[in-house]
Structure formats: structure tokens, C-alpha cells
Amino acid sequence: MMCVPREEVVRAEDERLLQANNRKLTTYFGYPDNAIKTSKYNALNFLPMNLFEQFQRLANAYFLILVFLQLIPQISSLASYTTVIPLMVVLSITAVKDAIDDLKRHQNDNQVNNRSVLLLVNGRMEEDKWMNVQVGDIIKLKNNQRVTADILLLSSSEPYSLAYVETAELDGETNLKVKQAISVTSDLEDNLELLSAFDGEVKCDPPNNKLDKFAGILTYKGQKYLLDHDKLLLRGCIIRNTDWCCGLVIYTGPDTKLMKNSGKSTFKRTHMDHLVNVLVLWIFLLLGIMCFVIAVGHGIWQSKIGYYFQIFLPWENYVSSSVVSATLIYWSYFIILNTMVPISLYISVEIIRLGNSFYINWDRKMFYAPKNTPAQARTTTLNEELGQVKYVFSDKTGTLTQNIMVFDKCSIYGKLYGGSCDKGGSKVPDSKKEKVDFSYNKLANPNFSFYDNTLVEAVKSGDNWVHLFFLSLSLCHTVMSEEKVEGKNVIVAGRSKNVGMPIAVLPHADGVHEHPGGDATVTVSHHYTPKEQLKKHTILADIVVSAAGELVYQAQSPDEGALVTAARNFGFVFRSRTSETITVIEMGVTRVYQLLAILDFNNVRKRMSVIVRTPEDRLMLFCKGADTIICELLHSSCTDLNNVTMEHLDDFATKGLRTLMVAYRELDAAFFQTWSHKHSSACLSLEGRENKLSIIYEEIEKDLMLLGATAIEDKLQDAVPETIITLNKAKIKIWVLTGDKQETAVNIAYSCSIFDDEMDRVFMVQGKNYETVYQELRTARAKMKPESLLESDPTNIHLSTKPKMPFAVPDEEPNGNYGLVISGYSLACALEENLELELLRTACMCKGVICCRMMPLQKAQVVELVKRYKKAVTLAIGDGANDVSMIKGIIFWGFIAAAHIGVGISGLEGMQAMLNSDFSFSQFHYLQRLLLVHGRWSYNRMCKFLSYFFYKNFAFTLVHFWYAFYNGFSAQTVYDSWFITCYNLIYTSLPVLGLSLFDQDVSEMWSLCFPELYEAGQHNLFFNKKKFMNCLLHGIYSSFVLFFVPMGTIHNSERSDGKDISDFQTFSLIVQTSLMCVVTMQIALKTTYWTLMSHLFIWGSLGFYFCMLFLLYSDGLCLMLPNIFQFLGVARNSLNQPQLWLSIILSTVLCIIPAVGYIFLKPLFYPASVNKVFDRIHHCMKYPLPPPVQTRLKHASLRRSAYAFSHQQGFGALITSGKTMKIRPKKKNSSPFKN
To answer: Considering the entire predicted model, what is its pTM?
Structure first.
């Protein structure tokens, strides 16, 4: 057993110590089991915990205090049910909602925890539940099975104990990754006796959220072996193309990297929430001032009048002086005026948000039929925030693009193919393009499409340059192949696989070569029988192909897959490879090329080459790479051809296509022999190997002969460019945050219309130290706005005062149209404290920003930078787990760093981003509908709701204030207690909900046609502190009218039969009826979209009020419960008097005059930009414009390369090393610290 000193237990979180097959040690350290828990409540703690959480809200706590105050008879003039009933309704609805949400979390937890896995127990593999797995256990996983926990790979069914995993839910990448066990544990295989006896001890990192970092040491049989990330299978991965693998559990349950990245659920509050909280505090302050004024008034009245009036109105025993009486009155009015902050405000907001969330879920135009995936509002608290977004931070791969590469066009020896022109040379419209028929080629990929028959004719006619071009594409790559026959896989190049997918090779443990990690294809080569004799080398090949077989390529990058597939369809079929040969079927003839060298790709070289010996014993070098690089390597005789090809490349670039140039060179045998010796020496060098190889490569990659260029379309998601153009019109800025390389990201930016050729300039920030990055940012800002560098600039003056955090950096307008590209290295420098404002000011002046080669942490940092210094709403959208940091947030500098709104794309790259998002859908272009339609409507509705809600409660409550001056400040209420109870809860609830759920200022069509409407939300024009003050003043005015008009009406007035009607109950009836009519007319004026439901809610509520009036004031209820229902017959006796109805009408007219005047006069004298847009919409509705004729203008622009290739370094050496051969290696002893 592994002995651990007690002091090491204390620092167990500094490093993890474990031993295989030793659960006692696991228990000793207290490591958690593999069960996960995302739920908050259980049956026992739900009620106390939920109530505790709800009463943490200031409003709920406030009303709870009011309930207790109302139980004190000395200060309460209202029955306690006027507050208890609304409070109970609010708490109950919220509790039910929380319970339903937590029940779903319980169900998800149970589903995951009860999955089954094979667990090694007492020498046998037994099926057990995930939740029962513990640290130190050995488990066995099978193909297509999810990884149970974070496990150390011990052995697998693959040669060299390789295991293939899909990491889509972790890093958002669809390509497979390769993990490899160290050779000492690969000998265990799946032998239960050996696995049971394995007692290796592991010392490793403590649990953390770094997906790509792991370091540890395995101690076994007295030897130590280094462990790294390449040996670890993470929870959330799926085993692919591997029959079985065994692993040692390192991290379980909440300690796994997947759960560490999930983090705690954070409750996001909108800007509107923060504003309302501030306004509620203002109302509390106003309430306190009003109560104080009334209390002072009461004290004066008691000392001046009440003291001498005790014979008629004696003081209570507990009232010893006017001061005591005034103190009690203060709290009495605190209760009466509590409706200034109505509890129904918060529950109404929740209902409105819930309803608007359902609109998103039900939107058929955001439903993606191919995957049967609807849009989903995963939170109900951020709807109106969708109408205020200023910055969108987007991932690239899988979000803007489909990560599907399509061979679209090519240029071969100066001739352009793929343009789809007719015989007369005119361009054929897309709708009339005819797909090329490849039926003549039995090995063609049926999914490949091309629309230019002239290229097929050139191939069939034997055009030498075309043949050489496609031969180059079929040889110069690192693709692997396999054949699938009737659901089974026939090995053509490599071991049997079930799914042809791009996969990645990671550093392997054995051999001389060291390969950096990256995307690649690992397939095991086939053993061939004699087939063809070359002059100097005998190459063995025997290809047995079933007519029913399907040839499948596994490419390191989708770019390579597209190029090799194109060559295949045009008759140059890459069939298989070994470490020494490449087999190609050229126009039906099988030819085997000896592979002499692969000059591997890297980001500096931006090219790759292969050197082969043809069956005719010719030495050929084929090269493909970036045009800017290949041009420098061409032979001088290619100048004219290069110029023509460059014109074609320019055309490809303007279409956003990804390009490569293709060239070749025939080598002299003696020259190659000399070069080969140099190459071998460089490969064996221990110091400076990379630099030496680069120099050797350059010696042979020169004097190349140009063959042509390829153009690949990185297929965007549907309507992405149109969406971004529309969002730009709405003044929404798009920043792309991607881990991809710069060239790829920039080309996608042009394809998506984030950048365009009309831009004045695109700045590249590529410095790798503080000084360089600072200078590049300053240079860019000097170009965009020279005066921003002057000390007299307003922003500089503001920043020079060193304002306290948090402060906002003002928006700055550039003098043109600019873009910014910055790499992850430069970003690391720019995010330092002294440079972050420089970066922010420069980036925010640009139309579009591309941040490439970013880590997930940097994504969160960029989002947080904008959030911190800009008063703007941010939205992050992505589809992979590497986007979770900006969608949901991570702990950064002690707080959660995340965008205000997180949107997940439920695409090809896993579900992690979607599961951590606030909103999710399947296509990026749904974002414009989410923001410009649902977001804008939700914002408008919420603004109308808040302004109306505050107004109606001010008008309702402040009547008590005026009445206090007439009742000796005695805390007598104007209204009947039942009217106070039902006013917010019943009488006015449906109209305001109808307004907030159904109203539309313009239709969805006009919302999308005029994105400029969205700008109002970004500046929060429809509800802010100024609008609130307007509501307050309007409410004060209305309460004044509602009190004094009825007061003047009934003063010394009589009925038609001569009876007096100057009584309190009649006055109360007139005031509350006038109030109902006023608030009904006010909401009718605010309603712009009338539906049957709107009419029913608005006018029906007013009618319901009158029905309730006659019911509550009926003889039956009043005689049955006289202490509760005290207005006996008031409605029947008062509402038949004409002067009362005239008073109601006069009050209503006087109250709505300011609102009507504001609606009509403001657009005339103080028009906002949105009013001008409404005028354009009304004009278009009257005089529809003809559809615009779309013409494409070609603007002269500076030459830019469209080179973008997602290939990564390291796979060429793996192929030539023979590492992937199917023969299982002989067992050998592992050296200590071998890596």
C-alpha cells in the first residue's frame, strides 16, 4: 500500500496522490465519488431555502415587514390581507417556477449518474453505475462510449495503445484526437489478471479547469514515468474507432475538468433590473419624505386642533402627546402608501419575461428543420436585454462557418475553371448551373459537386498540365484512406474504422521524433504483396477493391480533404499509403510512388512539399502553400504565368475563397542524394532541429514551376453575410474571437462582410512584446482619429483625471472605416493594465475586430474588458466548450467574467456551449431575428410596462397624500380596502400584461427591413431616469386631478331627489372609478398593436371592475359580513347620478391631455432618430418601393492573399516514421522519464 505522511493529507489539494486498485487510500484522502449534482433543493430543504432566497430580494423583505406592521393595531388602518394575499401569490408562483426548474436538474443528474460502465472489481469486469466509480478504479470503455471520468489511458485495442476520442463537448472541435498510453502500461492490454495486479502510484496536478494541461508522475515497479495531457481521457469525450480501452480514474465527479469548467450557475441581471432597483430606492426615499411631511402635519394638527378636540375625538391611552401620535402616523402612512412600490411589479415582470421567452421557443422561423431543433430561451430573465446589444463576440468555426470545405474553383496553367460560363463566354446564373456528371469514375465521391464541364473535358482529353495539377493534389498531402464495404471496413490504408473523420495526432511516447500536437489523421498502413517493380526500389502493392466499396478519407484538416477529394473525382484517386509509398489510381491505372520525404507544414513556412519517385524513376517535388510564399520560390520563367494566376487569385479573394498555389520541380538524382544526407543529419540533430530543417527545406524548395492555384469555399452558415450587414446597420459591432490562425480568420471576416474591400484600412497587431504592441495600437489610433492622441482630446482629459472604477470610456468616432486584427500573443500584452485602455479605444473605433489564436481565458478577458469600460450590453455566441468562458463566464479577478447574454449554437461541435447558454438555436442568422425582432419587441414592451406601471401606481397612491390634508392626517384611506387589494392584483393586471405580451410598434418585417429602429434600445431611450421622472410628474398631476375634481363635484352637492351625496363612500367610489377609467385610457393610448386579446384585456378589465363593484357593494355580502364589506348599496345609489359621470369624464379628459399632447407634439418639435425611421416606414406602407436591382460593384483594392489553411505541423514525420503500422510492437522495457 502507498504510505502517505499525515502532513501530506493537509496539502492534498496542492497535488493529487492515488494508487490503482486502492479504494482505502481514496477514502483516506476524501476524494469525491463520480456523482454530479447540479440541483439546488431536495424535499426537506426546498421550502426554507426557497423562502430564504426569495426574501433576500429587497421588495419581498419589504412587504414581509409591512405584513408585521399591519398586525400592530396602533398603526394599521388597513387590513393585513391587503398585503398578505399579494405576497402569498408572488411567493407561490416563484416557488412553483423554481421547483419545476430544479426538478429538471434532478432528472438530468439522475440520468447521467445512472449510466453504466465496466468497472474492475475483484479481478472481474462488472457493470456498475457512473456514480459508484472512485479515484483509483480501473474501468474499461468501448467504442462510441462516453468517458466516465478523467482517466489515465493504460491500454487499448489499437497499436501502440492509441485511443481515438471525440472532444466536441470540450473544445468544440469535430475532428478526432489521438491519445496514447505509455508503453509500460500498454503491456497490460485487457488482461484482467495484469490489470488487477497493477498497483501504480500517481502523483499529479490537483483538480483544475485547464482542458489542455495535465502533469504527473507514474511510479510503477520502482521506475518513474512522466505523464502529460496526451495520456489523459477527459470526461465528456467519446471513444471513437477504438474497440476498447482501459484507464485509471484520476479525477471524478465535481473534480473532473468538464465540471470544473461548468462552474456555478450565475444569475444574470439586466440593465433594466439595475435601473429598477435604483428607482425603487428613489421611491423609498420619496415615500419616507412623504410620510415625514404627513407626520409633521399630523403633529401640528394635533397640537393646534386635535388637542382641543378630544371631547369629540379622544386620544387613545397610548398617545401621550402629539409627538407620539405623529410617530405612529408616520408608520401608518408608511403602510398606506406602500403601493408606491407594488409587489405585483416583480411578479408582473417575471410573467412578461416568461411570455416573451415562449415567443422565442415558438418561433417557427427560428426552427431548424434539418436537425429538428427549435430556438430555445434557456433563461427568462434577459429578454429585454436582447433589445439593447451593442457588441457581439462570436466564435468562428461552427458559429459563422459550417467547417465544411468545398472545392469551388481552380486555376491551371493560366486557365480558370469553375466560373460556369456558357460557350459564348457569358456567366451562367447560379439557378441554371448544371452539376458535372462523374459517373464515368467509379471511385468518385458522390457528394462532390462541381459546375464546370470544361475541366472534365480537359482531364479526359489528356491535358498534361491538368493531369500534373491533379497528380500534385493526390500526392502532396497527409491524408489517410480506408474502404467501407456493406457496413464493414476493408483496410486499404490503416486499421478498420467505423467512421471516416478527421482526427488529430498528439505527441507519442516512443521513437526519436518529437511531434508537437495538432490536428492530423492517424491511420495504420496496409501490407502489400508484390505488384510493380521500380528501377531502384521494389515497392509492394496489391490493392483488392470491392465494387461495392466506399473509399473514405481521413484528413488532418478539412482543406486537405477537399483537395484530395477533388483530385479523386477528376480521375486521380489517392488509394493508400505506407510509410514509404503512395498509391494513386490515375485515370483507371494503378501507380505506386515511392515516398522519399515529406517537408512538413508549419505556420512560418506556410507550405508543405513531398518528394516522390515515380514509376518511371523520375524524382519529383510537389509543393502547395500560400501564394505570398510560393511566388518567391518560382523559377524566373514563370513570371507571365504567375501574373495571370495572381489575377485569378485576386478574384478568388474577393469572393472570400481560401486559396493555395500549387507548384512542382523535377530533381536531379545527384542533387537529391546530397540533399538527403543533409536532411537526415538535420533530423537527428538534438539542438536547433527546427531551424536546421527549415534551412534544408529551403535548399530544395526553389526554382519551382507553377502549376496553378486552388480555391476552396469554407462554407458559411446560411445567410451569415446578410446577417452581419443587417446587424451593422443596427449599430451592432461584431468581434470574432477564435482560436484559429490569422489567415483563416481574416478570410472568413471578408467572406462574412465583417471586413470589406471598401475599408480604408485593416490594422494588423502582431507584436510580441509590450513596446511593439503599444506602438502598433497607437499607430492605428493615430490613423483613425489623429486628435485622439492630443492631450486636449475630451477622452484623454477624462482619463487623465483618473476616475474611480467603474467608469465608462466615451465612444469615439473614427474618420473612416477600419478593421483590426490582433493575435493571441499580442492580445496577452495588450490586456495588461497599462495597455488595456489603449486596446479598447483602438478596437472600439473599428467596424470589425478579429482576435485570433485565442485561449478560452482570453475570450473571457476581452469580453470583460468591454463590459468594464463601456456602458453597453454585450452578447457572446459560440458552439464549443472553449466558448463557455465568454458565454457563461469564469472566475476572473474575483468576479464572473462573461457577456451579459450568452448564446449557444447547437451545431456540429457538441452541446457544451448550448447547455451553458442563455439562448440557443442552430443557425447564426437566427441571431438577427433574436435581436431585431424578439429583443426589440421585448425591450419596447418592458419599457411601456414600467412607465405605465409606475404611473398608474403613483396616480393611485398619491391621492392618499392629498386626502391627508382634509382628514387631519389621520391615516384614513380614500379607497375601499377591497379596491386596494384588487387594484394591482386583478383590476389592472391583465391590461398591462396584454400590453407587455402582445404589443408591437411595427411588424417583424419592418423590424428587419429597418434595423435602425434597434438603436433606441442601445441608448435606452424608452425608459430611463428621465422617463421615470416624467412618470412621477404625470402621476402627481393625475392624482391631483383625481382627488380635487371629485372633491369639487360632491362638495355641497345634492342628488336630483334633494338628498345629500357629500359622503365619504360616494367620494371614494367616484375617485376609484375615475382612476380606473384614467388608467384604462392611458394604456389604450400606449397600445399600438390592437388584437382581440388586447380589446378583451383592456376593456374587459374595466367591465370586470364594474361587475365586481356591484358584487362587493351588494346587499347580500354587506349584510352577511358587515365588518368586511362596508359600502352597502353605494354603487347602486351613486352611479345613477349624472354629475358623478360628468366628474369621471372630466377627470379622465384632464388626465389624458398631457399624454395625448406628448404623443403628437414631441415628434414635431423634438424628433428622435427612431421617429424619422417610423416616418419612412409609414411612407413605404403608403407608397411601396419597387424591389432594388442588385448589382455587384467591383472596387479596386490592394492585393490581399486569400491563403487560409487549417493544416498543422507534426503529421508528416509521423507518417514517414512508420509509427502507425498495424503490426503490434514487440514488448520492451520502458526507460524512466521517457516521453
So the answer is: 0.78
